[in-house]
Amino acid sequence: MKKMAFLYSTLTILALSACATPEQIAAQQERERRAQQELGLRLAAQCDQETADLMRRQAENPAFLTAKETQKDAERYREKISNPLFQSCYQLAWNNYLNQTRLQQAEDWAWRQQMYDDDWLFPRWRCGRFHCR
Length: 133
Description:
Elements: H1 2-17, H2 22-47, H3 49-60, H4 71-81, H5 84-117
Helix pairs in contact: 2-3, 2-5, 3-4
């Protein structure tokens, strides 16, 4: 009985230690937000470097659009962002990124299927007397 209690308490401690604290969750969400923002800036830089720089300044300084000292840059930022040519290029860059990601996932899936079908990673004989299929 003591062994079972010890086992249950050990499993409970392991399960609870695997849980993330609210601070860890917030830090992870912040890292994901910054990575997403950095990706958007890299894609914007493919279209127009000056616009990407303005976007970076706006992201780093929340008061960029309202502060008196950055009024001229904020107006240039609005003008550049609302340019239909930039918007089209930026949308095209995002679509290209998403399609490349989907293609990579499909290639990875095809490779895994090939490895399974080639009996190299998961041989069919491990299913017993009969084939798995």
